From TrEMBL:
Residue ranges constituting the ATPase F1/V1/A1 complex alpha/beta subunit N-terminal domain according to the UniProt record: 10-76
Name of the molecule in the record: V-type ATP synthase beta chain
Source taxon at top rank: Bacteria
Keyword Transport included in the entry's annotation: yes
Length: 460
């Protein structure tokens, strides 16, 4: 244990940053306790050390700090989270303190919130299906245990409702292992926080969930800690308690804005669009904490949700997130304006691991073929609809008209399932067949004839 020293050498305070002079033996990321002149206590973290100066990032902001009279203690260890299996079913603030009026936790252990880097050799390949109960995800962009699959949304789109629906409905099929949801709300409004808490309480899903809620009026630095605290909890439940944990983090854009704010306070040279140059590296330290480990029964699966500023998918936040994660689910204004819920735009959406989590023994043997056929038919139907708008209905062939009928039905019945309907993968597959039966069999070129006969009956 490092020797704990106390200093009264605060030389300046700028925004959320405090500079302490004449320090020795101080380390990066170390937790700092500050006692103010009136006896109030605050916490911070060492951002950098240069010779005998330490830059400390304050969690609760810097207002009211008297430079001469404040005492600073360096604790010798990083920010740690007290973890216990009793966290499941509880609601915490963004720093891991109970918010629900329940009892204080009795910690089983204290874990560094930055986690441990996982040796790639000890990673296991994600290949088991997670059912979210949402057809557009389960059937067409399958989520796999240990995967990181972000949702790209836009302002005004119902990503909160989608997040709550996934938190309520997600299960691992055919596995009696314990399943938990860790929900990290980052920089959200009080109304949004109420919505999530109320929804999970009302449906009983709170009993298997851990909520961390960081509100928009909490300090920016706390926003940086919240996803790390949530992931530390998830890793503990997964790798030490053998649970399958789904981590939902919303909204990652607020996290990146907080990084930008702190980077500006440190007077760093900004990168693209004013975000720090290390945004990619920083995001990867969060997203790469998903996965399965060889020899461990549990798993950590991530669904980060982010709103794309100005709906621009080339913006640094969705752009870099797309590089690190295995696909994306994209929500669309056009579908939402047509009254479809959830407005998942399946054509640009993608789950790179979908083939690993589907098929015989995992979902059903006809999964991949029907998925490919639905994608192809929907794309062709959309083209036919556009053609009809330009040239008029009369320009369409009979087959084109069937594709238009298919597309309308597909959107109305398959995508538009609402935020309360929980469909099993069987139901999604069967509905897919029902819709494909609108098209002539000669058009179902991506499915083997014997499979078509099996599901749609033989034709003499």
């Amino acid at each position: 244990m490092a020797h704990i020293k106390e200093y009264r050498t605060v030389s300046e305070v700028v925004g959320p940053l405090m500079i302490v002079d004449q320090v020795s033996g101080v380390h990066y990321n170390e937790l700092v306790n500050i006692t103010m002149q009136n006896g109030d206590k605050r916490q911070g973290q060492v951002l950098e050390v240069h010779h005998d100066k330490a830059v400390v990032q304050l969690f609760e902001g810097s207002s009211g700090i008297n430079l001469a009279k404040s005492k600073v203690r360096f604790t010798g260890h990083p920010l740690e989270l007290a973890v216990s299996e009793d966290m499941v079913g509880r609601i915490f603030d963004g720093m891991g303190k109970p918010l629900d009026g329940g009892p204080e936790l009795i910690a089983e252990k204290f874990l560094d919130i930055d986690g441990q880097a996982i040796n790639p050799i000890s990673r296991d390949y994600p290949d088991e299906f997670i059912q979210t109960g949402i057809s557009a995800i389960d059937h067409l962009n399958t989520l796999v245990r240990g995967q990181k699959l972000p949702v790209f949304s836009g302002s005004g789109l119902p990503h909160n409702e989608l997040a709550a629906q996934i938190a309520r409905q997600a299960t691992v099929l055919g596995d009696d292992g314990k399943f938990a949801v860790v929900f990290a709300a980052i920089g959200i409004t009080f109304e949004e926080a109420e919505f999530f808490m109320e929804d999970l309480r009302k449906t009983g899903a709170i009993s298997r969930s851990v909520l961390f809620i960081n509100l928009a009026n909490d300090p920016a630095i706390e926003r940086i800690a919240t996803p790390r605290i949530a992931l530390t909890t998830a890793e503990y439940l997964a790798y030490e308690k053998n649970m399958h944990v789904l981590v939902i983090m919303t909204d990652m854009t607020n996290y990146c804005e907080a990084l930008r704010e702190i980077s500006a306070a440190r007077r760093e040279v900004p990168g693209r669009r004013g975000y720090p140059g290390y945004l990619y590296t920083n995001l990867s330290t969060l997203y790469e904490r998903a996965g399965r480990l060889v020899g461990k029964a549990g798993s950590v699966t991530q669904i980060p949700i982010l709103t794309m500023p100005e709906d621009d998918i080339t913006h640094p936040i969705p752009d870099l997130t797309g590089y690190i994660t295995e696909g994306q689910i994209i929500l669309s204004h056009a579908l939402y304006n047509s009254g479809l819920e959830p407005p998942i735009d399946i054509l640009p959406s993608l789950s790179r691991l979908k083939d690993k989590g589907s098929g015989e023994g995992k979902t059903r043997a006809d999964h991949a073929a029907t998925m490919n056929q639905l994608f192809a038919a929907y794309a062709q139907g959309k083209q036919a609809k556009e053609l009809a708008i330009v040239l008029g209905e009369s320009a369409l062939s009979d087959t084109d008209k069937l594709y238009v009928a298919f597309t309308n039905q597909f959107e109305e019945r398959y995508i538009n399932q609402g935020f309360t309907q929980n469909r099993s993968i069987e139901e999604s597959l069967n509905l897919g067949w029902e819709l494909l039966s609108i098209l002539p069999r000669t058009e179902l070129k991506r499915i083997k004839a014997e499979v078509i006969d099996h599901y749609l009956g033989k034709v003499d």
